[in-house]
Amino acid sequence: MELGGEKALWLLSPRITVLVTAISKKGQVNAAPYSFVGPLSIVPPMCYVSSGKGKDTEAFTRETKEFVLNLVSVDFAQAAIACEARLPRGESELEKFGLHEKKSKFVKAPSVKEAHATVECKLTEVIKPKGSDHVLLIGKILGGTCEFERDGGKPDLDRLELVMHVAGAHFRKAGERITLERNK
């Protein structure tokens, strides 16, 4: 079967779903779900969020140079996804959809209380890929939190019950962990 570009994009799925929180200089909080996110570097630890141009997430992140990735789990997934609603600037998506702010450890942007894991970032760069309808928000990872731990102090991703995005309204739960040998 031959696939056009948009259908072929599905093959890069499922992707982790996060609820990005950002704060403006005026203290307004924005929360929006994203699945175009991922790691960029180990040393220093860096990640990216691919945001539609002109979104409050981009605007607030540019203003205060920080954002939080709140990993979306099954228990609050519907409320997190509802935060994609276009509300007037200054109206709280978290409040409207029954979620709550929590003080972050490393940045002023709040975390989401319902999130079992967070990644807090300092904006280092905004990249506008030529011809793209998105911008890349590049962040240095300052730290994070995780409620569940497995052997060796590592995050227990199985207990997080993370939600993965495929496309549109299609989501999946993160699957079973397997171990494969690597040739490094």
| Shape label | globular
Please give the alpha-carbon distance between the first and last residues: 35 Å
Residue-averaged pLDDT: 93
Tell me roughly what share of residues is in helical segments: 10-25%
Radius of gyration: 16 Å
CATH class equals: Mainly Beta
Number of helices: 5
CATH topology: Pnp Oxidase, Chain A
Could you state the CATH homologous superfamily?
A: Electron Transport, Fmn-binding Protein, Chain A
CATH architecture: Roll
State the strand order across the main sheet.
3-2-6-9-10-5-4
Largest sheet: 7 strands, antiparallel
Pick out the low-confidence regions: none
SSE string, helices as H and strands as E: HEEEEEHEHHEEEEEEHEE
Total individual domains? 1
Please tell me about this protein's structure.
The protein is α+β, with helices and mostly antiparallel strands and 184 residues long. It has one domain (12-173): Electron Transport, Fmn-binding Protein, Chain A (Pnp Oxidase, Chain A, Roll), CATH 2.30.110. It contains five helices and 14 strands. It has helices at residues 5-9, 56-64, 77-82, 93-96, 157-160; strands spanning 15-16, 18-23, 29-34, 37-41, 46-52, 66-71, 101-102, 111-112, 117-127, 134-146, 149-150, 154-155, 163-167, 170-173. Strand 4 (37-41) and strand 5 form a beta hairpin. It is globular and about 50 Å long.
SSE order and pairing:
Elements: H1 5-9, E1 15-16, E2 18-23, E3 29-34, E4 37-41, E5 46-52, H2 56-64, E6 66-71, H3 77-82, H4 93-96, E7 101-102, E8 111-112, E9 117-127, E10 134-146, E11 149-150, E12 154-155, H5 157-160, E13 163-167, E14 170-173
Antiparallel strand pairs: 1-13, 2-3, 2-6, 4-5, 5-10, 6-9, 7-8, 9-10, 11-12, 13-14
